[in-house]
Amino acid sequence: MTHPPRAVNAGVMTQNQPDIAAMSFEEALRALEDVVRKLESGEVPLDDSIALYERGEALRGHCQTRLDAAQARIEKIVAGPDGQAQAVQPFDADR
Questions:
Q1: Run of H or E including 78
Q2: Which has fewest Cβ within 10 Å: 4, 47, 67, 90?
Q3: Rounded Cα gap, residues 17 and 36, in angstroms
Q4: How far is CA 74 from CA 77, 81, 88, 89, 90, in A?
Q5: Alpha carbon distance 27, 17 (integer Å)
Q6: Full set of structural domains in the chain with CATH
Q7: Are 75 and 89 within 8 A, CB to CB?
Q8: pLDDT digit string (tens) for the chain, length 95 residues
Q9: Is the pTM of this model over 0.90?
Q10: Angle separating helix axes 46-74 and 25-41, nearest 10 degrees
């Protein structure tokens, strides 16, 4: 039994796409928005939807990691002599 060719191949869908780890936050966010648009269209075959969902999850995780790193850089806890947090200082306050 042969199956008709699919319009989009899951392997092709992930080929020629930039490595997520090398993406900036903005690039990853745009790619994630594109994944969501494709999934919401309902026009992607099931296997390709799964591949898209997996890429979207990886993109979401990358964006979250980048946001967490940015937050850690922006806010620095300033500890007092007793070791307790006294204030939050912007990361560039030392410059």
A1: strand 75-79
A2: 4
A3: 16
A4: 10, 22, 9, 8, 5
A5: 11
A6: 10-94 (1.10.287)
A7: yes
A8: 444 434 444 444 555 788 999 999 999 999 999 999 999 999 999 999 999 999 999 999 999 999 998 888 777 666 666 766 666 666 655 54
A9: no
A10: 150
